[in-house]
Automatic annotation (TrEMBL):
Ranges occupied by TPR repeats: 98-131, 132-165, 200-233, 234-267, 302-335
Family matches, as SMART domains: TPR
Gene3D superfamilies to which the protein is assigned, alphabetical: Tetratricopeptide repeat domain
UniProt-recorded name of the protein: Tetratricopeptide repeat protein
Domain of life: Bacteria
Alphabetical list of Pfam families matching this protein: TPR_6, TPR_8
InterPro entries recorded: TPR-like_helical_dom_sf, TPR_rpt
Record key words, sorted: TPR repeat
Amino acid sequence: MALVPDERPSSSILKFESMLKTNDVYFFDAEDFEEIIHHYLNNGKITLAKKAIKIGLQQHPAAIHLKLLDVEVLVFENRFQKAEIILDELQRLDSANEEIYIQRANIYSKKDNHEAAVELLKKALTLSHGSLDVYSLLGMEYLFMDDYEKARENFMICVEHDPEDYASLYNVVYCFEFMEEHDGAINYLNDYLERSPYCQVAWHQLGKQYFEKGMYKEALAAFDFAIIADDNFVGAYFEKGKVLEKMGEYEKAIENYETTISIEDPTSHAYLRMGKCHERLKNDDMAKYYYYQTVHEDPLLDKGWLAITDYYFRKGDYEKALFYMNKAINIDGQNPQYWKKCARIHAALKKYDEADFSYRQAVELGNYELDTWLNWSEVVAQNNDIESAIQILIQGLEFYPEKAEMLYKMTGLYLMAQDPVKAQYRFVKALKMDIDKLHYFEVEFPSFYNSDWAQNIILNIKKASQ
């Protein structure tokens, strides 16, 4: 029998550990060895499990279940060749043993051959007469194959036969979420709750689905039911706090985050949310306090440093904002949004070279948003490098060929570069594409907009369109 971690050791386990300490040799039944080995495997004590397997096989060399546990450890250690030799021997002795096929499937799975693993598990299923463990393993293989429909079907079978199999329940919901079928998840969870109305896990998951759909009142009710089922359910309080934030009930949200801290040790995420709430309540000192508590609790939480950055940026203290932005980048330098924010701070400080570098990093890391190209070209133009600013917009046009604002900006830059021919080409194209966005050109380049050159072109385009 398999023991759960931290379960009180049985007399067989105590006897075995006593034997190891005294170097005496005690005899155990094969079933006792199975219990001992499962205990060590479940508690992550692989070395002790291997010792028990070795001694167990010395005392019971023909015990198939002990050999299968030996295979399980070999597979865990990626020693596939030796594991397969043992499995070949066992299959000759007992070809109808489903565990042989399960272990072979594990080997194929670890080799990323999930299709072969599925076929072996299907064979194991016929031999095991519908073992739920096999359905669960099939579900995981289908997840590896990104076949969320079949994965969901197998996990649903597990939940149908064991409503307290919460791992499978989570996986069912995960499949619905990945397929963006929130309504399907809601219907499934409501059906589940008809049968298990006091399941806090299901209420919690239902609340999250309602939250995703923006159904905040329904989400709030679901989290309340989760708390009624288990008033120490930290996750439900935390999610309820997020809902209350969305509803603008910041003081109530803070109360729920505070409850999570009173039940368990404080978390950086709870501090961060509390800081956000206080900032929205204009409690600046409290907001700052909780942001600093966030990074004190978890110095590697880049979102904490980012929250402090945003706080100082909104206050116009760009030097401090830059200091904390750099801390976030040091933690996650591959995040293009961080480089983009860093560029904005440099631009506010009129450090255009640094802003140029930061925008370049953002784009190289995959940020191709429209405002990235527009703002990057702007800081380069501010640095009096008009040609480079134009080249940035030409590159951006590859991603946004139908965005007139790109063309209006290029018109102004070409005029600054004293190239009226190219400017006219871009201007005419922009006006024909979207004349309603002409205000972009008017606001950014008022002198060019009011010139006879621009007004004549605008007039001609309007006449041609009538």
